[in-house]
Design goal:
50% of the residues lie in helices and 6% in strands. It is α+β, with helices and mostly antiparallel strands. The longest helix is centred in the middle third of the chain and has 42 residues.
């Protein structure tokens, strides 16, 4: 705000003269103090005026705007540009507010008076907050992390969540949450002890702030330019907002000063007088005038009127800028129905087919007009909100407005203002580009206002909140209506929303609907809604916009070109805009007292439905081949009916309409059920996949209880009240299977192709079964429903807790009964399911914790009907049946293939008893009879499923038979009397025994049944609809007078006609011609002729024959009660029965006999009659055919099983040999170099060409290997306890005690004082970035491999690896690899010859070794083998980074390569040792035995190392085996001495010695080298021990040993040797300079001989272990296993250090292994001399180098805390140490604890993001990171990465990736162990399958 102390350009001159800049600060303070004093006087008019003048000048927006708009010139004129001016103004304001004091002190002073007991912290999107359902009153309650952790929520149902739209903390607000959940800070009601605010403290604020806010508003007015296209360009708006950033932040800071300041702000914002004075625009000030005009323009352009000129504007032609909505409103008000002018810019597509829109009946048109179009601003707050909306809710403004909410007075004022602007918000939202962002910001505000019941009620009463909301929603949807094409395309008057419009597609309506749902959750508000008839009418009007939307028309010819994906928008719209408000209203209709509300809703719902039927011209037949899944009016009606009966004890009939309306109501829901069957029968396949998507969404768990459940319930209600024959025939006609229900073996179906008949028939019967057995709304309690749902889901598959929560349809309205995680959910779950804890398969696929049904659930509660109703995929039904079958087999209850079990149902609620009449109507009985007959006769297109459903229906009928018919003596004459018609009565029990003799059928002339003789009395077949509708009606009485022709469709028509005639009002209505003529089959049907079939069966006789057919034996059925009469007297029919069809038939016959004695008699008779074994021919043939078929099938099945089993076992054995990467414990050794003395060379199989043969120079064979750099060894520490992950600022991990760091320090120390080339031979490298070689054990010809790589290169398939980097997968076992290690040709015999001990003396052997090493290794001739060896060596070098290979001071020196090569061998040996657990106690063959490639690796390394010869002068071997005389002369001329031999690393020496020898090595030479080196090692141990002893100990030992020096065993007794070492080293300065501080450090414990022996053994063990491993690999000898305490002696004897005759009775002494090749004392004194000469200068370093820490423990990952929240809370807000920002995706390295930014561009270095960089530095290319915000672990390996999974699981054993559920997570130790194991064994590449390239972007 351009406000310098200088004069405003063109304004009046200020009273003070200008001041130099330096004086300004004091000057401002002084002015402020002066003004404050002036205002404090009682008569403060003068002061007030002076202040006004100052403010006028300081806060004038003119200059700054000029500066902002006019760019540089203006800025130059104004001096300092816009920014400076703004700051200046803010400085003034701060000074004035503080009244001359310091601003910070002022802030602190005001804060002291903060009485706020609310937290009210406002946050924006992505903030991590908490929600506790136990403490919340409103479902939207949320807490900031601080309040949550300070409150006590143990054991509560809470979760952490990432805010989507932003929110505010509710702590302290008892309207929204229970006080028990408040945190410590907000528990105290703190009004009492806060002193009153001194008047003068805030006095200045009251004067300054109104001007400040007015200035802000002027800014907003000025900055808003009405763009041409009515769409503000984002750039302009954002620019203005950026300019205003500091001002709004200033206001925001004021709100944070606490309650005192907030109440001043409230006064300022809501004071109407202030507003009037400042903004009226009437003054002489031109600037103010201009700004007021801009304001009026903005109002107008928004389609809003300022109240004064409302009428004038309204009746003119609408200007282009004004919204059509205004016009529409007026059209409505004046009652004309003209064509609506579509001048609205939002209708981009013009007025496509809007036509004459039905007048929208709004409750009172004038009021709505004002709702939509009039805004009058009376205070700053109102205009601020107006601009906030106009600028599309800038985040800063929203935060400021919300920060004020803790002030109660403000909250009410703001809520009213918000409601007043509601219509304007809707209009802005519709035009917005960023509707998502804007929606989130709107909800951010509204959820804070409307969650509070008290506030919502107040606004509803005072501001007509409900009227406004409903009207605004109605208007919003009106902008996207199209004509409905349902039913009568031409004449339909119904309009529906167009789901393709952005409004629906992008869910733009979401914020408004969500507010509506929110306020309906308050009882007081919902009651007003339900009482207001006008509102209900409007709302039903709104709902009817969705009735019939997204109509699907079945494509019959072409496949649809373009699959529209709008269906999801339609489902979402119905769920959110119709169903959720419905559930909200239902939750308030729970008790008797609310009956009135239900009556209201039902009444207006029926009216709306009647209007809808009229609008679409619906009479009685639905239009063919079209379906809509959206019938919200039907569903409203159904759900309120259900509630009325269930909770409010209303009489159902009092809320039901007449029969005709019921008939209409059932048509569309029934059409949906039939269409589902059609879709599953692939009849809609030409409509594309989306139609399947609709069918699935309709039954999917989030939608089913708002869609399919109410539909089925409505059909149940209709069925219970309509004539059953009418209902049943309607069902079969809708499912188009009427023609199929004929006794004839052939029939003509005009509406269905033959291939669809079977599945449609199954669909129809399944639907009837569901309709008759489902009790969700017919009498089940909520807990029973929950249990049934849960059982159904668990039966399909085992489920995790969260997926179960997701799959159980809960009421979509959060305040209703079943809240996820509520008590009843958990208790039901524990009653029906067992928890299976997460298990680990070694294959790396990690299971989650699962729930699986208890055995008794399978036994008694498995309900196939519920499963069928709830499956989205048909395969789930099969899966449930398979699991059920498996259970029965396992528990031994039933061995075969069972049928779906029959389950007793919950009793029906009395209101719905009529539903059971369906089971007792002739039509159904005829259908059942016909189907049984057809199945028995093997007609086509019938299936076991059909039979199953038929029997299910019969059984249901028997279970629910009407009592009054049981007096059966009355009907004794039945069968004889009624022999001519189908069935005598309607009771199934008596109809079952009724024999039917002849049936007349109409068949095609070609059918076999056409015989010409016809007996006199026949029943006519239930024949297809079309023939009957095409024949003249008269024919229906054809043939003899007695024969009754039965036609389903004719019956149905007749009933409908009767009803229509009965209702007098409709008496004169002409029945419309039947639409069915439209879909007759193309071409005329073939000639049909009537034939008469002889049947002579009853249902009972058919059942008995069916039993024979199913069991495949004649006379298989024998009535059980003939043996045991008890069965009928005390029937024990279980509630639940398992078994197949045979069992079902037996059960039915038993129930039939039970229910009537007649049936019992007849069953016995039939059984006697059937006994003669002469069966009717036709049946036998058919039966034989099916039996053969069955047998063949059975055999085929068995064959298949056998094949599969064989295949599985093969696969298993292959996996065992190939893939035991995963289970190192249970390995079977398969040595590559076998040890039996064979004469032949080793034979290798090539896995590519399949040939076997030796590896030769010309055609070498190679091992498939994976080379990878590894730093695992470097992570060893000397403590067994792993380090903990830091979770506070204090905890830090320092890497100085790791193995890598210690070795690094040692090398650099040596390089400081000794000759470089000698240093590089004294140590090993490769602790970090060492190369590890592993193989899967498969071999291939190297030339085969090359062609294989070539083919991979040309393969276009996207692989998970990079072929250019040489990566591939083993052709046999698909293990990841990247190189081939050539196998050295040579036979095993050679090996064995070399192993025979020769009898040379040690001295000779030593000479041999020296000689062999001296021979230069000429590189073998240029063979293929040598080339390959060279290339693999190159690969090995390139595997690791240069920094891990180059340690020499002179770059490129050969010593470097030499060091690197023997270190590779060292790395692989050390790692193998770690894989064995750090010691060799387990012995046996190597765990990596068959996969070890060390032998081959040694050949390659040895070959290359022999190219470098060590000058014999410098060969350490000489120093070890000879006494050298003239030492000193050497030292003189060298500038740097060589490394003393005692400082050498003995293991490195061993590898150098062995790799320098020609391969293969002679065993004697190996043993010789080991013996010599052991003496050196032992001496080192003694020297180190001597340093560790105290001075006294040393002298004691020195004397003790000296006495025994001359004994014969002196060279093998450690005390003599120790004393000698001490006396030798005492000659130098090694033990000197031990000041007092040193003594304190030295071990105070006295060394006993035992402890010394232990120390010496521990010192030597690592060397012995590595040496034994090496011997095992080079010579193929097995390692002995042993106890830990005898490991030393066992290894020593295995290496040949211990004489074999050595007895182990007396305590073992390590010194006995010594075998000195040179007199011991001489050589020791020679070695000690080197040390002494070094310690002359450097005592400390000399000491440090002698004590080598060689006892490293196994490497571990960091130890993680038990609870994930501790990690999350510390790290998710932690700033990154590199870029000092809080990372968007923080991650932490689990190896070293470094905190990194994942994918953060902030920390990118040379195109490498931080995680990739860290993985190279910390793990040489392998990184293991825990992603803080996702709780998952990500592995980086080289250039690839994979998501590993999570090691934190919730209480139900589930991962929570991305913390979506936000439940508390706990460490899963087993998983973490698996992760660590994979890290140590380097098997990430093999076990994890999903790798992708990361392009250095992580």
């Amino acid at each position: 705000m351009a406000a310098a102390a200088a004069a405003a350009v063109g304004g009046p001159q200020p009273p003070q003269s200008e001041l130099p800049a330096s004086g300004l600060a004091q000057d401002k303070a002084a002015t402020a103090a002066h003004l404050k004093a002036a205002l404090s006087r009682p008569d403060n008019r003068a002061g007030a005026e002076e202040l006004q003048a100052l403010l006028e000048r300081v806060l004038s927006p003119e200059r700054s705007l000029a500066a902002a708009a006019g760019g540089e010139e203006a800025a130059a004129a104004g001096g300092g540009g816009p920014g400076a001016a703004e700051e200046e103004a803010l400085e003034w304001c701060k000074c004035l507010l503080a009244g001359g004091g310091g601003y910070d002190e002022f802030c602190a002073a005001v804060r002291a008076y903060d009485p706020a007991a609310l937290c009210g912290l406002v946050w924006t999107a992505n903030f991590v907050a908490y929600r506790c359902r136990t403490c919340g009153i409103s479902p939207c309650m949320s807490l900031c992390a601080e309040c949550f952790h300070q409150g006590d929520h143990t054991g509560h149902d809470f979760n952490m969540f990432r805010s989507q739209a932003g929110g505010a903390c509710d702590c302290g607000d008892s309207n929204v949450m229970r006080e028990s959940g408040f945190c410590k800070r907000h528990q105290i009601k703190s009004n009492s002890n806060i002193p009153c605010v001194p008047k003068d403290l805030l006095m200045m604020s009251e004067f300054v702030l109104p001007r400040f806010i007015f200035c802000l508003i002027q800014y907003l007015r000025e900055g808003y330019n009405e763009p041409a296209a009515d769409v503000p360009s984002e750039k302009d708006l954002n620019r203005v907002l950026q300019l205003l950033e500091p001002q709004i932040s200033f206001l925001e800071d004021l709100t944070k000063m606490g309650g005192a300041m907030r109440s001043v702000l409230t006064q300022v914002l809501t004071n109407q007088q202030n507003y009037k004075d400042l903004t009226s625009g009437l003054g002489e000030n031109a600037c103010a005038k201009k700004s007021h005009e801009k304001y009026l323009i903005a109002l107008k352009s928004s389609g809003l009127t300022y109240p004064e000129d409302k009428l004038v504007c309204g009746l003119q032609e609408p200007s282009a800028g004004s919204s059509t909505l205004a016009v529409q409103g007026f059209v409505g008000a004046t009652g004309t129905l003209g064509q609506v002018d579509s001048s609205d810019e939002e209708d981009q597509d013009g007025s496509q087919g809007l036509g004459k829109r039905k007048r929208v009946k709004l409750s009172s048109s004038t009021k709505d007009q004002s709702i939509m179009d009039v805004l009058k601003h009376k205070s700053f707050l109102e205009e601020l909100l107006f601009w906030t909306i106009k600028y599309e809710f800038p985040q800063k403004m929203v935060t400021f407005l919300l920060n004020m909410l803790p002030d109660q007075e403000y909250k009410v004022a703001f809520t009213k203002t918000f409601v007043q602007h509601y219509a304007f918000i809707m209009k802005t939202l519709k035009k917005s580009h960023e509707s998502d962002t804007m929606s989130n910001r709107i909800v951010h505000i509204s959820v804070q206002l409307f969650s509070n019941e008290e506030l919502a009620r107040q606004v509803t009463e005072e501001c007509q909140l409900l009227d406004i909301m409903v009207t605004v929603l109605l208007y919003m949807m009106e902008s996207c209506l199209i004509k409905s094409e349902l039913q009568d395309e031409e004449n339909s008057l119904h309009v529906v929303v167009n789901c393709g419009e952005a409004l629906l597609k992008n869910n733009t309506y979401w914020p408004l609907v969500s507010d509506f749902i929110n306020i309906l959750s308050h009882q007081s508000v919902a009651k007003r809604f339900l009482e207001d008839h006008g509102l209900l009418v409007t709302w039903m009007n709104f709902v009817s916009f969705f009735q019939g939307m997204n109509l699907n028309k079945r494509e019959l010819n072409e496949h649809v070109e373009f699959e529209s994906q709008t269906y999801y928008a339609a489902f979402a719209a119905e769920l959110e805009a119709c169903a959720q408000p419905m559930w909200g209203l239902l939750s308030h209709c729970k008790v008797r007292e609310t009956q009135e509300y239900t009556r209201n809703v039902v009444r207006y719902c029926l009216e709306a439905l009647q209007d809808w039927f009229d609008a679409i011209n619906f009479v009685d037949e639905p239009a063919p081949n079209q379906v809509t899944f959206h019938l919200p009016l039907h569903r409203y009606y159904a759900m309120f009916l259900s509630k009325a009966v269930k909770c409010q004890e209303l009489d159902l009939d009092s809320v039901l309409p007449d029969q005709e309306m019921l008939m209409k109501l059932m048509i569309h829901p029934l059409q949906i059920q039939a269409s589902l069957a059609e879709i599953h029968s692939n009849m809609w396949v030409r409509n594309g996949l989306q139609i399947k998507g609709q069918a699935m969404t309709y039954v999917q768990s989030h939608f089913c209880n708002s869609m399919i459940d109410p539909d089925i319930y409505l059909l149940q209600v209709c069925a219970s009240r309509l004539d059953p024959d009418y209902f049943i025939s309607s069902v079969f006609e809708r499912f188009k299977v009427v023609d199929l229900l004929t006794m004839a073996s052939q029939h003509q179906n005009t509406v269905l192709d033959a291939e669809h008949e079977r599945s449609m028939l199954e669909g129809a019967l399944t639907f009837l079964v569901i309709l008759l057995s489902l009790r969700l709304h017919l009498g089940m309690s909520d807990d029973e429903i929950l249990r049934a749902e849960m059982v159904a889901q668990l039966c399909m598959n085992d489920r995790t807790h969260s997926s179960l929560l997701d799959l159980i349809p809960e009421n979509p309205n959060p305040k209703s009964g079943i809240i996820p995680g509520s008590y009843s959910f958990e208790s039901v779950l524990s009653a029906v399911a067992d928890f299976k804890a997460p298990v680990f398969e070694p294959g790396g696929s990690m299971q989650q914790g699962m729930y699986t049904p208890k055995a008794e659930v399978w036994d008694q509660e498995f309900d196939p009907v519920m499963v069928i109703l709830r499956t989205v995929y048909r395969r789930d039904v099969q899966s449930a049946m398979d699991r059920y079958t498996a259970f029965l087999k396992q528990s031994g209850k039933f061995p075969g293939n069972p049928w779906p079990p029959y389950k007793k149902r919950t009793p029906l609620h009395p209101s719905y008893k009529g539903l059971m009449r369906l089971l007792h109507c002739k039509t159904l009985h005829i259908v059942l009879f016909t189907l049984l007959y057809k199945i028995l006769m093997d007609h086509q297109n019938l299936s076991e499923h059909v039979l199953c459903m038929v029997l299910y229906l019969i059984e249901l009928g028997l279970e629910n038979s009407p009592e009054e018919e049981s007096d059966e003596e009355a009907s004794v004459g039945g069968p004889e009397r009624c022999h001519d018609s189908w069935f005598p009565g309607s009771n199934l029990v008596s109809n079952m025994r009724h024999f039917i003799n002849y049936v007349r059928v109409r068949v095609p002339e070609t059918a076999p049944e056409v015989k010409r003789d016809s007996p006199a009395s026949t029943s006519s077949d239930s024949l297809g609809s079309l023939q009957s509708s095409r024949r003249p009606r008269v024919l229906q009485r054809e043939h003899s007078g007695t024969a009754q022709v039965f036609s389903l469709v004719a019956e149905r028509r007749k009933k409908f006609q009767e009803i229509i005639n009965r209702s007098s009002s409709e008496a004169n209505q002409v029945v419309r011609p039947k639409t069915s003529s439209k879909w007759s089959a193309p071409g005329s049907a073939p000639q049909l002729t009537t034939a008469i079939l002889e049947i002579k069966e009853s249902i009972l006789s058919l059942l008995i024959k069916l039993h024979h057919k199913l069991s495949g034996k004649q006379n298989s059925y024998y009535p059980p009660w003939l043996d045991d009469i008890e069965i009928l007297i005390q029937p024990e029919i279980p509630k639940f029965s398992h078994g197949d069809g045979i069992a079902a038939v037996e059960r039915i016959l038993q129930k039939a006999a039970l229910q009537s004695r007649m049936n019992k008699r007849i069953i016995e008779e039939i059984c006697r009659k059937v006994t003669p074994p002469v069966p009717p021919k036709k049946i036998t043939a058919a039966e034989k055919k099916t039996l053969d078929k069955e047998e063949r099938r059975q055999k085929a099945r068995e064959r298949q099983q056998k094949l599969l089993a064989e295949f599985a076992s093969r696969q298993k054995s292959f996996m065992e040999t190939a893939m035991d990467v995963d289970s190192p414990e249970t390995d079977i050794p398969m040595e590559i170099t076998t040890a039996e003395p064979q004469v032949s060379e080793t034979v290798y199989d090539c896995v590519i060409c399949g040939q076997s043969g030796p590896s030769s120079e010309d055609r070498p064979t190679g091992l498939v290997v994976l080379l990878q750099a590894s730093s695992v060894l470097g992570q060893c520490r000397d403590s067994t306890e792993p380090k903990k992950l830091p979770i506070t600022e204090e905890e830090q991990i320092y890497p100085w005690d790791t193995c890598a760091a210690v070795h690094d320090v040692r090398l650099s120390l040596l390089q400081r004082y000794f000759k470089d080339s000698s240093c590089l031979l004294a140590v090993s490298i490769g602790w970090e970035g060492g190369v590890y070689v592993q193989t899967c054990g498969h071999t291939l010809h190297i030339d085969c491999h090359k062609s294989y790589m070539e083919s991979l290169r040309n393969d276009q398939v996207l692989q998970g690896f990079s072929v250019d980097k040489g990566e591939f997968t083993c052709p046999l076992c698909r293990q990841f690899a990247n190189s081939v290690l050539p196998c050295y040709p040579g036979s095993n015999v050679e090996n064995n010859l070399w192993q025979r001990p020769s009898n040379k003396s040690v001295q000779d052997l030593i000479k041999d070794v020296e000689e062999l090493q001296g021979r230069p290794g000429a590189f073998p001739s240029e063979t293929n083998l040598s080339k390959e060896m060279e290339s693999v060596m190159k690969d090995i070098k390139n595997t690791t980074q240069k920094k891990y290979r180059d340690y020499s001071k002179t770059p490129g020196s050969p010593d470097n390569d030499f060091l690197f090569m023997y270190s590779v061998a060292r790395t692989n040996l050390e790692l193998e040792l770690i894989h064995r657990g750090g010691n060799l106690c387990s012995g046996g063959a190597s765990t990596a035995g068959k996969r070890s490639c060390l032998n081959q690796l040694f050949h390659v390394l040895a070959l290359h190392m022999r190219l470098y010869s060590i000058d014999s002068e410098y060969n350490p071997w000489r120093k070890l085996t000879r006494l050298i005389e003239e030492m000193n002369s050497q030292l003189g001329n060298e500038e740097q001495p060589e490394v003393p031999i005692l400082y050498h690393d003995v293991t490195s020496l061993l590898l150098i010695q062995i790799l320098m020898m020609p391969q293969p090595l002679h065993k004697d030479h190996f043993t010789c080298i080991v013996k010599v080196l052991f003496t050196l090692l032992y001496t080192q141990a003694l020297a180190a021990l001597s340093i560790k002893c105290s001075e006294e100990d040393r002298s004691t030992w020195k004397h003790m040993g000296a006495l025994k020096k001359n004994t014969c065993e002196a060279e093998k007794s450690y005390d003599v040797l120790l004393s000698f070492v001490i006396s030798e080293l005492s000659k130098g300065k090694l033990y000197h300079e031990e000041g007092n501080q040193e003594c304190a450090m030295v071990n105070p414990i006295a060394w006993s001989p035992e402890s010394m022996e232990k120390y010496l053994q521990d010192f030597c063990l690592p060397f012995l272990r590595i040496t034994s491993l090496l011997q095992h690999h080079l010579f193929g000898e097995d390692l002995p296993s042993c106890q830990e305490e005898e490991e030393f002696s066992v290894l020593a004897s295995c290496l040949g250090l211990l004489p074999t005759f050595y007895q182990t009775e007396h305590p073992f002494i390590s010194a006995s292994c010594l075998d000195w090749s040179v007199p011991a004392f001489d050589i020791i004194s020679q070695w000690c001399l080197e040390i002494n000469s070094f310690t002359e200068q450097h005592t400390e370093q000399g000491k440090a180098l002698l004590i080598q820490e060689s006892r490293w423990k196994l490497p571990h990952l960091l130890q993680l805390p038990e609870n994930y929240n501790t990690i999350f809370q510390y790290y998710h807000r932690k700033t990154c140490s590199v870029c000092t920002k809080v990372p968007k995706d923080p991650a932490v390295c689990l190896v070293c604890g470094t905190f990194v930014c994942l994918k953060g561009l902030c920390c990118k270095q040379q195109s490498y993001c931080e995680c990739v960089l860290h993985s190279q530095n910390c793990g040489a290319g392998t990184g293991i990171f825990l992603l803080i915000n996702a709780s998952v672990i990500i592995i980086i390996r080289g250039h690839r990465f994979c998501l590993w999974g999570s090691v934190y699981l919730d209480a139900h054993g589930e991962e929570d990736r991305d913390l979506r559920r936000g439940k508390p997570l706990y460490i899963c130790k087993e998983r973490y162990k698996v992760l660590e194991q994979q890290w140590i064994s380097h098997t990430f590449d093999h076990i994890n399958k999903r790798w992708g390239p990361h392009y250095n972007g992580l």
